Amino acid sequence: MGTTLAQRIQDNIRWVADFPEEGVHFADLTPVLADPQIFNGIMRQMSDWAGEVDIIAGLDARGFLISAGVAVLKDVGVLALRKAGKLPSPVHHVDYGLEYGEAALEIPAEGLDITGKRIFIVDDVMATGGTSQAALELIEQAGGVVTGFATILELTELNGRSKLADLPVFSITTA
């Protein structure tokens, strides 16, 4: 019997203590994404979970890689949810808290009409859920309809999925 996708991911995560600050145990998924078999398995799994959608949204920055791969498999568009200050005005903007600070997400408020579009959000790691919740709020603010959220790794102790209580949340593996 072969090793499961979840186990292969677990075996390739690089854990870094006290990064980006003291007390945070950072899960670096760079080695996971660099392995073509694991990467392709992640894309296929998330594509299956996405169902019928119009757009795959990815969170800055590793979520961009994931969203592009899933969007190709789904034959739909991709939406980059950017960190604040990376786009010219006007923008839709949502502030949120992280486990180690404050941040914001933005998308263009002109030239992009997602009104009524079914949007599936993907990212690499779900921790406290602050970024995930901000992504949901941002898309809804712009008129989109979030259909679900998927992540490679969910840090279950931080209970991030509770911030997306009314949304299907999928994770390939947990820690």
Q: Number of helix segments? A: 5
Output the CATH topology: Rossmann fold
The number of E-state strands comes to 9
Describe the strand arrangement of the main beta sheet, using strand numbers.
5-6-4-3-7-8-9
The CATH architecture designation is 3-Layer(aba) Sandwich
Q: Between the first and last Cα atoms, what is the distance in angstroms?
A: 23 Å
Rg from Cα: 16 Å
Q: Which assembly state applies to the chains in this document?
A: single chain
Q: SS-based structural class?
A: alpha/beta
Q: Into which percent range does the helicity of residues fall? A: 25-40%
Instruction: Tell me the series of helices and strands, N- to C-terminal.
Output: HEEHHEHEEEEHEE
Q: How would you describe the shape?
A: globular
In CATH's first tier, which class applies?
Answer: Alpha Beta
Number of domains: 1
- Poorly predicted runs are none
What does this structure look like?
This protein is of the alpha/beta class. The protein has helices at residues 5-12, 30-34, 36-50, 62-74, 130-141; strands spanning 14-17, 25-28, 55-59, 77-83, 91-98, 101-108, 118-126, 145-154, 169-174. α3 packs across α4. It is globular and about 45 Å long.
